[in-house]
């Protein structure tokens, strides 16, 4: 694997035959994905194609058929996979008092954070946020962060427990170009330095060309799969995304 | 019978006023000092997890709990109230996840049904007035045994709460995110609604069905207006809850108004002050 030069770990995640049925209707059907550590797999598709459903099935939020296998070839064993998740948005209102620091504390300590103060944890959280250029946000309230800031904080939060697979649902809007560029730079750094396998749902085609190792076009089933160039040039892609949409989402040509 | 004389002496020393000569006032004060922080902490989670309407319905369901208790012939209906409250809470909680109709509709249907059922059963034979105390509560009627019950509840609830509050916080931020961090959302939420049910039912005798929810929600809602993190949120909420409890009790003694509503009015006043503070920021 060309992306794994710096590490000896060889591992892979197999997503086998994942299907989700709601009211006897398949939302997604027979999804098979094979991903390696240090690879970025990007899922694209129209609204309602089942992208978010697939992610939620992967993290166990909704019931599904099929299985997720993780094989760590360091010891060749089949293990329960540890998945980090970055949601599209949070279900909190703007005035929610939870700060960025609180979010981290709620996960890394068992002592009730509404009463106990933990100075040791502060440095840990600060350093983790620093890796994602978000340390200045540590005392801000979650509800007051911009889209890009929240995305970086959630990325730091998802990776603090060293997951083997990172699952990200990219926000549809609310992030400026500078924020998007920084986000992809951080994702790239994560996969190269920490050798994490990443699955990303994206709506933004330009960075995909630059960063994705594998692109999956989804419409309930996998319609087309391969390198970004291959998928974007396929007839299926052209059928799913009209000229207008493609022109809108590509600032430059393929 | 446990003697509270030492505690009484402390209270008389701290509050050298006419009201502190009465044992019923001292008992009420003790109850408030134990219950107010409990309400404050649970209230913060109820407000954060958007369950205010749920806890309101839970309070109303107490009527049916009381009715069942009186039919079975229990002298102190608190046991039947707690059991029915937990059952009621759990049914609403399971229906909420079944996507039958919108949450507020489900809660409303169950709330109205249990009020009606409770009123119908209690009014049978025409002596509903016997139970009217449960509507506004009577905090001045707390005895030593009641204090012990409150204290045991306090220990149980605080223990559970200390273990669960971080997990509940993460659930309130994002359900899927909490699951991805390995939290068993169903178990944590179920334990939490049981804790809420126990707290509400134990307190109804003293604060009353009509206003029990205000005491849960108002301090937390006020605190939310001026807090920048969860620690502040909890601490201000406890502070507001104790201040409104103690000052409401004392005001009610001199003004000869019912204690529960007076306490709620002080809490409401604090809430409006925090709204003004937030707007002037």
The residue ranges of chain B in which pLDDT falls below 50 over 5 or more consecutive positions are: none
The H-level CATH homologous superfamily of chain B, spelled out, is ABC transporter involved in vitamin B12 uptake, BtuC
> What is the total tally of β strands of chain B?
0
Radius of gyration of chain A: 19 Å
* Reported CATH architecture of the domain at 6-82 and 165-174 and 192-254 in chain A: 3-Layer(aba) Sandwich
Order of helices and strands of chain B: HHHHHHHHHHHH
Structure description:
The complex is a heterodimer of chains A (254) and B (281). With 254 residues, chain A is an alpha/beta fold. Chain A has a domain at 6-82 and 165-174 and 192-254: Rossmann fold. Helices cover 34% and strands 26% of the residues of chain A. Chain A has nine helices and ten strands. Chain B has 281 residues and is mainly α. Chain B has one domain (5-280): ABC transporter involved in vitamin B12 uptake, BtuC (Orthogonal Bundle), CATH 1.10.3470.10. Chain B is built from twelve helices and no strands. In chain B, helix 10 (212-226) crosses helix 11. Chain B is globular, with a radius of gyration of 19 Å. The relative contact order of chain B is 0.16. Classes of the chains: A alpha/beta (254), B mainly alpha (281).
Keywords:
heterodimer; A: 254 residues; alpha/beta; Rossmann fold; six-stranded mixed β-sheet; four-stranded antiparallel β-sheet; 10 strands; 34% helix; 26% strand; disordered N terminus; B: 281 residues; mainly alpha; ABC transporter involved in vitamin B12 uptake, BtuC; 12 helices; 0% strand; globular
């Amino acid at each position: 694997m060309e992306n794994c030069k710096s590490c000896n770990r060889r591992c892979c995640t197999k997503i086998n035959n994942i299907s989700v049925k709601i009211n006897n209707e398949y939302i997604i059907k027979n999804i098979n994905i094979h991903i390696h550590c240090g690879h970025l797999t990007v899922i694209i598709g129209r609204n309602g194609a089942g992208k978010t459903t697939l992610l939620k099935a992967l993290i166990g939020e909704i019931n599904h058929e099929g299985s997720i296998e993780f094989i760590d070839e360091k010891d060749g064993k089949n293990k329960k996979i540890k998945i980090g998740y970055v949601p599209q948005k949070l279900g909190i209102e703007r005035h929610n008092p939870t700060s960025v620091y609180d979010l981290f504390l709620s996960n890394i300590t068992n002592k009730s954070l509404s009463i106990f103060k933990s100075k040791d944890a502060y440095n840990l959280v600060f350093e983790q946020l620093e890796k994602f250029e978000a340390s200045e946000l540590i005392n801000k309230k979650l509800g007051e962060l911009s889209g890009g800031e929240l995305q970086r904080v959630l990325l730091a939060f998802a990776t603090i427990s060293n997951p083997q697979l990172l699952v990200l649902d990219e926000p549809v809007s609310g992030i400026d170009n500078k924020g998007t560029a920084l986000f992809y730079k951080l994702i790239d750094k994560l996969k190269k330095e920490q050798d994490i396998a990443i699955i990303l749902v994206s709506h933004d085609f330009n960075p995909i060309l630059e960063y994705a190792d594998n692109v999956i076009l989804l419409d309930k089933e996998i319609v087309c799969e391969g390198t970004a160039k291959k998928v974007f040039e396929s007839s299926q892609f052209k059928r799913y995304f009209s000229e207008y949409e493609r022109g809108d989402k590509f600032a430059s040509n393929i | 019978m446990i003697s509270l004389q030492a505690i009484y002496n402390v209270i008389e020393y701290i509050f050298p006023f006419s009201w502190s000569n009465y044992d019923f006032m001292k008992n009420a004060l003790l109850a408030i000092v134990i219950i107010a922080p409990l309400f404050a902490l649970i209230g913060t989670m109820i407000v954060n997890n958007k369950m205010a309407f749920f806890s309101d319905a839970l309070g109303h369901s107490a009527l049916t709990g009381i009715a069942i208790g009186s039919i079975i012939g229990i002298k102190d209906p608190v046991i039947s109230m707690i059991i029915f409250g937990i059952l009621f809470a759990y049914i609403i909680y399971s229906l909420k996840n079944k996507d039958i109709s919108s949450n507020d509709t489900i809660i409303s249907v169950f709330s109205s049904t249990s009020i009606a059922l409770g009123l119908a059963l209690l009014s049978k034979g025409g002596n509903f007035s016997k139970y009217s105390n449960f509507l506004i509560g009577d905090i001045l009627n707390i005895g030593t045994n009641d204090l012990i019950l409150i204290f045991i509840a306090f220990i149980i609830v605080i223990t559970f709460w200390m273990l669960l509050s971080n997990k509940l916080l993460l659930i309130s931020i994002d359900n899927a995110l909490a699951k991805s961090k390995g939290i068993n959302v169903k178990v944590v939420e179920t334990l939490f609604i049981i804790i809420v049910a126990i707290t509400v039912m134990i307190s109804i005798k003293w604060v009353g069905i009509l206003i029990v929810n205000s005491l849960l929600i108002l301090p937390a809602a006020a605190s939310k207006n001026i807090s920048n993190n969860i620690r502040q949120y909890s601490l201000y909420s406890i502070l507001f809850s104790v201040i409104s409890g103690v000052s409401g009790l004392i005001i009610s003694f001199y003004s000869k108004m019912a204690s529960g509503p007076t306490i709620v009015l002080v809490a409401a006043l604090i809430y409006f002050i925090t709204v003004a503070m937030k707007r002037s920021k």
